[in-house]
Amino acid sequence: MTSTPALFLDHESLVPLIEELSKTLEVVAPVYAEGEPVFATWKGEALALDADNPLNSPVEFFLPQKEVLFKYVQYSGRYTFSEEPPKSRLILGMRPCDLQAIKVLDEIFGTELSDHPYTSKRKSTIIVAMNCTSPGKGCFCASMGSGPAAKEGYDLLLTDVGSGYLVESGSPAGMFVLRANSRHFEEASPEHLKEKERRLALAEEEIVKRRLALTPEQIREAIDETDWEEVERRCLRCGGCSLVCPVCHCFSVMDRGVPDGERLRCRDTCTLAGFSRMTSGANPRASLGERLRHWYLDKFVYIPEKTGMLGCVGCGRCSRVCLSDVDRWSILREAIE
Ligand code: SF4
Ligand code: SF4
């Protein structure tokens, strides 16, 4: 990965910097909405960088919950198509777990068959990641190897070292941002670098101590041992756990409007009955228990087979969002302990 010597940005200089950047880019950052942190287009609000990682993952800016893929117009039996160009965007405050999720999605959407709506947004986005020095209570990134320190995939990387941020670049685009805005930065000292290592070691220790998740090997074993009918009785079938997951990426496509209209892509999930139901009415995964089991198999068997990476990055969102308190990881732990 491309890099330059680390720089230092004091806390007070962050807002002036993003004000500058927002003149030419759409800046997306964690901000507060009704008291809760959310990733949204920054319009000068207070930043929520110290809060828990928002429930809506920044992955939504590459794979939105709902998006218009293109519009179509029919004239004399012939169709013409038009699509919106992607916005030039900068995402600030992306955590290492979400960065790893994007690495998995890049492999899925960007390799064998390139998914143009996804890849075009990826190419036009600068990622300013932020290392997790105070991890959220439900996070277990360290168990999944995705955090609390980001290793790659960012353009710029911030680490809060107390008095400000240590700033490291990871790509030519990141270096360009640093050079073009050099007046906001100063050279980082060896103490800043040591403080980064100290804080990240403490964060990792804290996450590992909580033992929220099992290892991927234990999870594979637990999938066979779990009483899926019992889990089925507790689940409300809302699909929320998949829809907040930064790695889940299933979608459905529909055309709205005849003869003119638009093609929509909406996020979908294998945990909902309609996802695998066929036109005949037959459903190869008819029970919710079978679908929940499939969800884990996808994350810990099928996605690793396809990408070489786990389909879970340990962000903890699936357990946080569940109205029925189905802790996705405790049910597996109970099965093998
Ligand atoms: S969020 Fe909870 S209740 Fe909703 S589908 Fe997932 S496990 Fe079931
Ligand atoms: S499965 Fe749950 S913990 Fe894992 S990445 Fe998805 S939302 Fe996060």
Key phrases:
337 residues; alpha+beta; 37% helix; globular; binds iron/sulfur cluster
Characterize the structure shown.
It contains 13 helices and twelve strands. Helices cover 37% and strands 21% of the residues. The model has no long low-confidence stretch (mean pLDDT 93). The chain is α+β, with helices and mostly antiparallel strands and 337 residues long. The protein has helices spanning 11-21, 96-110, 116-123, 141-144, 172-180, 190-210, 216-225, 228-234, 240-243, 273-276, 288-307, 317-321, 330-336, and strands at residues 7-10, 26-33, 36-41, 66-75, 78-82, 89-94, 125-130, 156-160, 164-169, 186-187, 251-256, 261-267. Strands 3-2-6-7-8-9-1-10 form an eight-stranded mixed beta sheet, with helices on both faces. Strands 5-4-12-11 form a four-stranded antiparallel beta sheet, with no helix packed on it. It starts with 6 loop residues before the first strand and ends with a helix. It folds into two domains: 7-210, no CATH class; 216-336, no CATH class. Helix 7 (216-225) packs antiparallel against helix 11, helix 7 crosses helix 13 and helix 8 packs across helix 11 (288-307). One iron/sulfur cluster binds next to helix 12. The site of one iron/sulfur cluster has 13 residues, from helix 12.
The amount of helix comes to 25-40%
Query: How much strand?
Result: 15-25%
Calculate the terminal CA-CA distance, rounded to whole Å. 42 Å
- Total E-strand runs: 12
Number of structural units classed as domains: 2
Main β sheet profile:
8 strands, mixed
